[in-house]
Design a protein that fits this description.
The structure is a homodimer. With about 400 residues, chain A is of the alpha/beta class. Chain A has two domains: about 5-45 and about 290-400, Aspartate Aminotransferase, domain 1 (Alpha-Beta Complex), CATH 3.90.1150.10; about 50-285, 3-Layer(aba) Sandwich (Aspartate Aminotransferase, domain 2). In chain A, about 40% of the residues lie in helices and about 15% in strands. Chain A contains 13 helices and 14 strands. The first copy, chain A, has helices spanning about 5-10, 15-30, 50-60, 75-85, 105-115, 130-140, 155-165, 190-200, 255-270, 275-285, 290-315, 340-350, 380-400, and strands spanning about 35, 100-105, 120-125, 145-150, 155, 170-175, 205-210, 235-240, 250-255, 320, 330-335, 355, 355, 370-375. In chain A, the strands form three sheets. Chain A has an eight-stranded mixed β-sheet with strand order 2-9-8-7-6-3-4-5, sandwiched between helices. A four-stranded antiparallel β-sheet of chain A has the order 10-11-14-13. In chain A, helix 5 runs parallel beside helix 6 (about 130-140) and helix 11 runs parallel beside helix 13 (about 380-400). The termini of chain A are far apart. At the A-B interface, helix 1, helix 2, helix 3, helix 5 and helix 6 of A face helix 1, helix 2, helix 3, helix 5 and helix 6 of B.
Chain lengths: ~400, ~400
């Protein structure tokens, strides 16, 4: 007897994780896939030795307390540290009581969906946007409405029209810095206008910031939250791209009463976040030269981005459009109209190369000619070797001519 | 602006966690509470030194892989190990694909509530039962209907009447072994009948087994799941009481297709469980003499139970009824009718002693004269010293006479 309900039966595999599963299946058969599909940071830079030392310190100094039940809102010393940490984003007027620690940033997004989405309500996102968020919003019953992007981020006039049309928007979801998948950052005037629009249309902004510190010129933009005089912005932070994703530590920032409601939800859903992991993150941020680590990682990612840009420009079909990302992990490539990256996927995958089809990112079903390429996980050698092969396959699949 | 929705606004603090929070507040003011309220295992037996060694092994042998993104269904070697582990409960016909690793057992219960409860549907539980589960089922919109217990567990005739009345029961929730709070185990004939009733009334059994191995005579009962020829039983396992709760590792066992649906839910909700913790649990179960650890812990808990039984019998009011628990962490004491443990709580708490009022456990609002006392966390000395003080306060509050 299989469990069933309207809710469960409507769930499908998360689109991104279905690609991960395909890659894992090949690995089990001994085949190695060159994956430009991941949203992965590069494991060679995970601070494994620091973690060894940190784990030892935690268990020696804190003993059983580090693996006992603990508070649902999070480990207070970590929450207090994050108050300082958020000053990087010019978010200055918060206390630790505005912070809820979550089991990865995804859990924070899911809590907001669960809390604010009712069947039929609308969530507005950038078009394209992060499929893992779209899947979650839809899973909890939202209709997702996408708003187009230009080089300054989400188009605010189109957003206002969407808010006019959908008066019941649960919230506006945005990745304002080095957006996934486009790599674009929202300009400061738009950040300010976004806050005003949320206030005018009585809705919320969910600001997802996993890539904000992966900045290739070192500059960090002020968070939308830093312009939020109304309490309309809920900020979501993550350590998955800057330390390591397997630790599953994220956080939400909102007014104290909103955080309290989310804590009640957490009490029901999984009681609390893994204790060791919260302590690991605190000690890593505080004691292990995080800034230097960040500088090293972004330097490497910048070089990989450059190598990928070069290779794509040389081997992808004429007419391919690229946005040069100023940070983050991804390059968004729009192939000439008429090419179909969804159709092309299996053809490319049989040669053990993977990317994410653009359609996965687009709430309106567009993006069929686009693909997202991850440049953070693969070495420059690998990028220089396999992107031309990918380019060739794209050209041969489409029957188009390669540029040169 | 505070986030709000019908769902969010209906959530209240989890009853158990509200006591924990009170205790933590006193601790911040430098006051130590003698808590018989916890559902805590005793941290002095947490395998801290084993974990130090395990952490080191994991990071040396597996490096960054141990903290990279990983599969949503769980770490396969742990899932495979749990197939062997479940043979303790006579659950023999499963493969690792029947197992989903969750962030603590609470998360598994929440997934089932989310997946199977719709507003207005009924969940049937023992009366009394674990408040954390009741809170979760209600949080997702269920009406909870309690079925009375006797020394053989849930009353099957009353259960059948409840199933007749509530034809839309989402599932029956039971803690069959050393039940929380009563310490009672369900007899084998009732386990068999429960499976038949689930089949007859087209519903599911959620079998929660966190205490099954904390058995004072060393015997482990066959799980209800082991009698399940219809696929009607979903088993929930936990490491919180046998290793350490802060690791947040639990698991659900169900047919493969049901597990797949729950994986889709997990992909949306938090992607995956902490990688390190899954590896810690596997290595601890497999390499660190888990059976010997278990024997030591249960020996200590048995002695503490005995000390508590003695102290309660000597100091609680005449007419107090006790069930002698054959395992688990708790003693359930029913004071004479008319005494009110909810009213009495603050009076006792001002003397820095805590328990859990019986009403928290009873879906029908009964249990006002009962309390749950935890014997696993406090030393025998502490139990022998503070239970008589508690007994005295109960007697003086109620104006009743102490026995003995």
């Amino acid at each position: 007897m299989v469990i069933h309900s309207e809710f469960l039966d409507a769930l499908t595999p998360s689109s991104l994780r279905s690609i991960t599963a395909k890659i894992r299946d090949k690995a089990k058969r001994g085949e190695t896939v060159v994956s430009f599909a991941g949203g992965l940071p590069s494991p060679e830079f995970f601070p494994v030795d620091d973690l060894r030392r940190i784990n030892e310190q935690i268990l020696l100094e804190e003993g059983g307390e580090a693996i006992q039940y603990a508070a649902s809102d999070g480990y207070d010393p970590l929450r207090m540290y994050l108050v300082e940490f958020m000053k990087r984003y010019q978010v200055t007027d918060i206390s630790y009581k505005n912070i809820l620690i979550t089991s990865g940033a995804q859990q924070g997004l899911a809590y907001l969906a669960k809390g604010l989405v009712t069947p039929g309500s609308v969530v507005i996102t950038e078009n394209p946007s992060y499929p893992g968020a779209l899947d979650t919003f839809r899973g909890y019953g939202a209709e997702v409405v996408g708003v187009k992007m230009d080089e300054d981020g989400m188009d605010m006039d189109e957003l206002e029209r969407a808010l006019e049309t959908h008066r019941n928007a649960a919230f506006i979801y945005t990745i304002a810095d080095f957006q996934n998948p486009m790599g674009i950052s929202m300009s400061v005037p738009r950040r300010k206008r976004l806050v005003e629009l949320a206030e005018k249309y009585d809705t919320f902004v969910v600001e997802d910031g996993p890539y904000s510190l992966i900045s290739f010129d070192g500059r960090v933009m002020p968070a939308i939250k830093s312009f939020d005089t109304y309490g309309r912005v809920i900020y979501s932070g993550s350590t998955s791209k800057t330390i390591a994703p397997g630790l599953r530590i994220g956080w939400l920032i909102a007014d104290e009463e909103s955080i309290q409601k989310l804590v009640y939800l957490k009490m029901r859903d999984d009681l609390q976040v893994n204790n060791m992991a919260q302590r690991q993150v605190l000690r890593y941020f505080r004691d292990c030269g995080f800034d230097e680590h960040l500088r090293q990682v972004t330097d490497v990612y910048r070089s990989r981005r450059d190598t990928m840009l070069r290779a794509v420009r040389e081997s992808f079909p004429q007419g391919t459009r690229l946005v040069v990302p100023g940070g983050g992990l991804f390059l968004w490539a729009e192939l000439p109209e008429g090419m179909d990256t969804l159709e092309m996927f299996d053809y490319v995958f049989q040669k053990n190369i993977a990317y994410v089809p653009g359609a996965f990112f687009c709430p309106d079903g567009s993006g069929r000619n686009a693909m997202r390429l991850n440049f953070s996980t693969s070495s420059e050698e690998k990028i220089a070797r396999y992107i031309p092969i990918l380019g060739e396959m794209i050209c041969s699949f489409g029957g188009q001519k390669s540029a040169s």
